[in-house]
Amino acid sequence: MRHREVAEAFARDVRRLLGDNVIEIILFGSVARGEASEESDVDILVIVKKNPWDNQKKLADLVVDYLLKYGIYVSPKVLSVEEFEFMKGINSAFYINVSREGVRVGH
To answer: What average pLDDT does this structure show over 14-42?
Structure first.
């Protein structure tokens, strides 16, 4: 399975695991830009309504499952809407990168 397909599958599993708490899932980084190599990880931003830290912990087992199954490391970053809006408000480098290169996945 290629990196982009892994990103889509991971996003679908995140939606199943976290349910209605998920607002948006965005692929960013080298995979989103089409520049991934064999060693690239899959950078995923998960924007949730509440409890980003608890949700980050819930994804830990899923990350291990994907690494063992596909040999690809998925690196999820979970943020609440408020945290993402704050980053937008201060025009953070992370927000700029995600808004410039990000691609919605798992819908």
So the answer is: 95
Q: pLDDT-based confidence at 2, cuts 50/70/90?
A: very high
User: How far is C-alpha 70 from the geometric centre of its chain's CA atoms?
Assistant: 17
Domain hosting residue 64, numbered range: 3-104
Domain count across the chain: 1
Query: Residue 85 is part of a domain; what is its CATH number?
Result: 3.30.460.10
| Predicted TM-score of the model (pTM) | 0.93
Q: d(Cα 43, Cα 35) in Å, to the nearest integer? A: 13
Those residues whose C-beta lies under 8 Å from the C-beta of residue 8, and which sit 6 or more positions away, are 105, 106
